[in-house]
Amino acid sequence: MRLLVTGGAGFIGANFVHAAVREHPDVHVTVLDALTYAGSAESLAPVADDVRLIHGDISDAELVEKLVAESDAVAHFAAETHVDNSLADPEAFLRTNVIGTFTLLESVRRHGIRLHHVSTDEVYGDLALEDPVRFTESTPYNPSSPYSATKAASDMLVRSWVRSYGVRATISNCSNNYGPYQHVEKFIPRQITNVLTGRRPKLYGAGANVRDWIHVTDHNRAVWRILSDGELGRTYLIGADGERDNLTVMRTLLRLMDRDPNDFEHVTDRAGHDLRYAIDPSVLRDELGWAPRHDDFESGLAETIEWYRDNESWWRPLKDASEAMYAERNQ
Ligand code: NAD
Ligand code: DAU
Question: How many angstroms separate the CA atoms of 174 and 35, rounded?
């Protein structure tokens, strides 16, 4: 199979490509990535000899047309992904997440190519802390931020291209990922690298917000299952029963790094901050037989801390610029 992976030089995409090369040596992988601030060829260095990396934009219709025509399937990870950036400057989110997905859809439509669209649980908005139900495939869309609104728009485009044009696509909406190669702007790597660079970790508001954590390799195993055996036109929710509030994650991380669990700062909260995400993954478990392998968050977090300790050369060049941006926002 010839597989085109958009956004394969980003956090989840790079982990996906590593696993594809390791576990499916018969698959020829081409990565299309704009190498924005969030993407890096270095994240693909361990598989550089086995992967073709094309530096380009998913909104470039001519390039996308050529690459899709040469492929049997597309795994679409490319996106602008950071909520805080979308609040500061939403335009790139419209271009990549909406126009970029539209551009891909038009090409897979013309060539009859299988598409898997990677999306987020943030399209469903948020839940109350005590809400007894979790997100399911039929939860109404209710996005809160420019990021989640553009991801919701991209999901709607995929659904309508399936229905109107018979495009052979599936969608997955996953919860918060953690693991190696995640940009230092995101919560967990930011705090790990704050400690490693002598900065104090930063918690938005009181830290009561709940995220549903899943290890990136479990997310990617689910994406592979859906790409292989998912029913066309369906949406699958991916989650690992990993709900934790941010304060608990912060204290766990500090303890694992041999720090005082209260040695962090409260900083300005995020505008419109979603309170709680929670995924009900029963359809994926029951129909596709998927189950997470990292079922112990604390040991997954400890491994992730070790990865950042061992791979300073990967994240060090990003750190000062990322913190300078946060400082401007009082975060
Ligand atoms: P990331 O920000 O780490 O990586 C995104 C990648 O896309 C980067 O390599 C970047 O260079 C590339 N990219 C951006 N704009 C592009 C463009 N116009 N053309 C080509 N490439 C472009 O993101 P991530 O965390 O790896 O997320 C990947 C996907 O998974 C996204 O679609 C995101 O919405 C979704 N998702 C992420 C999470 C999470 O917790 N990180 C959870 C659920 C879903
Ligand atoms: O739910 C899936 C989503 O998870 C993905 O679609 C997004 O692409 C991904 O970025 C992530 O979104 P979040 O906004 O939940 O992730 P982030 O890492 O930015 O923040 C996680 C929580 O931690 C959130 O409640 C905000 C808080 N936070 C974040 C940062 C960067 C802090 O308290 N301090 C921080 O320094």
Answer: 23
Using an 8 Å Cβ cutoff, are 15 and 179 in contact?
Answer: yes
**What is the pTM for the complete model shown?**
0.99
Structure tokens at 180: 């190696």
Contact 175 CB / ligand 2 (< 6 Å):
yes
Q: 23 falls in which pLDDT band (50, 70, 90)?
A: very high
Residues 6+ away with beta carbon under 8 Å from 243? 210, 211, 212, 213, 276, 278
Respond yes or no: is residue 287 known to be catalytic: no
Instruction: Report pLDDT for 100.
Output: 99
What's the CATH code, domain 2-182+215-242+276-294? 3.40.50.720
Sorted by sequence, the CB contacts under 8 Å of residue 133 that are 6+ apart come out as 127, 280
Ligand 2 contact via 158 beta carbon (within 6 Å)? no
Whole-number Å distance, alpha carbon 93 to ligand 1 midpoint, is 11
Q: For residue 131, what pLDDT is reported?
A: 96
Tell how far the Cα of 33 is from the centroid of ligand 1, in angstroms. 10
49-63: pLDDT as tens digits = 999 999 999 999 999
